[in-house]
Amino acid sequence: MPGLASGLHAQMKRPPPRSFTAGSLLLLAVALLVLSLAGYLGPARGLALRPLAAVQSWIALRFAGARDLLTAPRDVATLRQQNAALLAEVARLQQQVITLQEQVAEVEVLSALLSYARLRPENRYLAANVIGEDVSPFIRSIWIGRGSDAGLQRGMPVVTERGLVGRLVEVFPTVSRVQLILDPEAAVNVLLQTSRADGVTVAQPNGEVWVDTIGQEVEVQPEELILTSGLGGGYPPDIPVGQVISVRRRDFEIFQQAVIQPVVDFENLLIVLVIVNFPTLPFEATSP
Amino acid sequence: MAYLVGTPLLALLAILQSAVLSHLQLLDGRPDLVLLAVGSWGLVGRGREAMVWGLIGGLFLDLLSGIPFGTSAIGLVLVAYIASLLEGRFWEAHLLMPMGVTLVGSLVFHALSLAGLLLSGHPIDLPTALMRVILPSTFLNLILALPASQLAVGLRRSLFPPEVTI
Question: Which residues contact B86 (CB under 8 A, 6 or more apart)?
Fold first, then answer.
């Protein structure tokens, strides 16, 4: 009997098979997926993102500073000279330089953004730091460090002093996700500045951005500027989007396409402006 | 203990993936730090913990992404399960095993991400996704697979030191 009891005890202590563990966890993940698709997890995600966004913001700012330091050869040389001369001061000086460089970069960006905002007094802007990119490489979106606590809403357009960045597709209390115009799901109604033809931007999976639905009769000029048209109400009019770099024209097609170079440098976005007084339509992610 | 260490570690890796690794790309691919951590932890004989790590790490990734919430978690639990299947096999300690698991894990993880996006209606060009994202990401993951597994071995030793009989 003692043998039987110890056998039962051992059986009771044995962990469940690994396929059972995996199955349970997968079920849990699928349940979360379903709840999320049904829209029940929004507040919980917002709550979970609060501490995560604070750390993300802190790391993003430090990384931007370190990257600036490494990509500015003259400053590195100066710092090295200072290192040689002032060994005792080196740690403190490096810290100072990183901080100051970051502040200068921020001031330069903010100054440019302020000039842009002054040119368009009809719009009200809210500046926000870019704190990260989407972790999925299949989605072209960025995270900014402002959310519904600051009055942001889904659908608000996002710009820099150069032009259109995208629009808010997810808004949490402290952070928001901006769908870039480079995302294949994004579509913007645009106007060709010289030829005055309308079109719609279509981001290609290879990273190119095309303007589609341009009539075959339109003479598209090289380097022609592309602006938002304001049609459809998704974006305000006259925000620069890009410049034509080539034209795809086939006689058997109804429309021609213009390949454009976006005016915004998406690789080096530090601070963006959200247009907060633009009346957003009931949100439909794929509507232009 | 593994969860106390693992949860903040996975959160940190997910944040690094969003804030830092987005600037270190090969074409459009980038290393998947959370996947490497989960796979490596599964390979050092902590299979069940790795599956829970997969769920937690996947949810952190899903928080920082526009893909349907839960998709990465499903992918990473599967990756951990695949890694745990090698537990106790005679080739478990083979030097190239982390690379094999990383190769299979990366492909499974990205395939599930793609499936999640396609199901949610996100337009994806599969050949481009394969050439510009999946293969470069898998390549970067393979480069980091061995260092990651060594780090996991070190972490296991410090968290669960082997018992010594005197």
Answer: B43, B92, B97, B101
CB contact under 8 A, B69 and A45: yes
**What is the rounded CA–CA span in Å between residue A256 and residue A246?**
11
Distance from CA of A91 to the nearest CA of B (A): 23
**A77: Cβ contacts below 8 Å, ≥ 6 apart:** none
Residues spanned by the domain of B47: 2-155
Interface contacts (A, B; CB < 8 Å): 156
Q: For residues B32 and B16, is the Cβ–Cβ distance under 8 A? A: no
For residue B118, is it within any domain?
yes
Instruction: Find the helix or strand (DSSP H, E) in which A18 lies.
Output: helix A18-37
Give the tokens for residue B48. Answer: 């069940």
Cβ contact A211:A195 at 8 Å: no
In a domain, B162, yes or no: no
**Amino acid type, B22:** S
Minimal CA separation from A215 to chain B, in Å: 24
How high is the ipTM of this complex?
A: 0.79
Q: What is the pTM of this model?
A: 0.72
What would the pLDDT profile of A47-88 be if each residue is shown by its tens digit?
888 888 888 888 888 887 777 777 766 666 677 666 766 676
Is B165 a member of any domain? no
Domains of chain A: 43-180 (2.40.10.340), 189-262 (2.40.10.350)
